[in-house]
Amino acid sequence: MTKKRIVHYINQFFAGIGGEEKADTKPESRPGVVGPGMALAKELGDAAEVVGTVICGDGYYAENIDSATEEILKLISAFQPDAVVTGPAFNAGRYGTAAGGVADAGQKKLGIPAVSGMYEENPGADMFRKTVFIVPTADNARGIKTAVPAMAKLVLKVLETNGEPGSPEEAGYMPRGVRVNFFQDRPGADRAVEMLVKKLKGEEFTTEYPMPSFDRVAPGEAVKDLKNATIALVTSGGIVPKGN
Predict the structure, then answer these.
(1) Which is nearest to 147 in space by CA: 113, 127, 164, 122?
(2) Which of 121, 140, 157, 241 is the Cys-Cys partner for 165 at CB 3.0 to 4.6 Å?
(3) E strands in 28-122
(4) Rounded mean pLDDT of 216-230?
(5) Is the pLDDT of residue 105 over 80?
């Protein structure tokens, strides 16, 4: 059996180049595995091999998204891969954005499947979970022991099924908001009553129509002396000084 060819995308930190001081590292490629790619190659076993690793600094990607993506895709394409694995990025926002962006672009422009991994609250997850198969991970690198095996399992499943690995629960990726029609062996009324009975008994059940959950934040007390108050402006827009 011919092994599938995998290209692994990582940032400058996991490549061992450096931390924030090396975030401006331009895209480069290396044959074979680098850093966490060793664990990925081990989990892939005889089914696939990591033929190359593409590296890019988080800062460089964030400041040059379009051109950096094109550079990275050229490096990936040179390895003639069957699939791309990016990350895991855990809760690193810029790394997650890059990992999701590279995976998404690889699928759309190179026509090859991609799998990524990141924490559910990573900005990259919100941006790309609808188009990329993303394995949910811990919020820091200590979770790499569970993240990499799950990513390896998923990318092999994606390749085996031609991009249809099954439901998120079966394959282990974040829900993508995609509804798929399928046949049940029992009418909906029967299933609904069964769930209701379980709920009334305090037993576990799985709804067939999960509803969104929104956090409720209690507002703070009114400022009594607004004229002499010090006001702090907080934003989640990711606004940082140029060059940071």
Answers:
(1) 122
(2) 157
(3) 28-31, 48-56, 83-86, 114-118
(4) 89
(5) yes
Closest CA to 65 of 34, 92, 104: 104
Average pLDDT across the chain, whole number: 92
Q: Which of 65-74, 89-98, 224-233 has the lowest mean pLDDT?
A: 224-233
Tokens coding 162: 């031609």
Do residues 229 and 223 touch, judged by C-beta distance below 8 A? yes
* Cα-Cα end-to-end distance for the chain: 48
- Residue 110 region, left (φ>0) first, then alpha (ψ -120 to 50), else beta? alpha
Whole-angstrom distance, CA of residue 93 vs CA of residue 158: 25
List Cβ neighbours of 115 (8 Å cut-off, separation of 6 or more): 83, 84, 85, 86, 103, 132, 133, 134, 135, 151, 154, 155, 158, 173
Backbone phi, psi, residue 172, to 5°? 85, 35
- Residue 74 sits at the vertex; the CA angle it makes with 70 and 76, to the nearest 5 degrees, is 115
**What is the pLDDT averaged over residues 199-225?**
87
Helix (H) or strand (E) holding 93, with range, is helix 93-105
pTM of the model: 0.80
Q: How far is CA 56 from the centre of its chain?
A: 17
What is the pLDDT at residue 196? 94
Return d(Cα 61, Cα 26) in angstroms, integer.
8
pLDDT of residue 1: 59
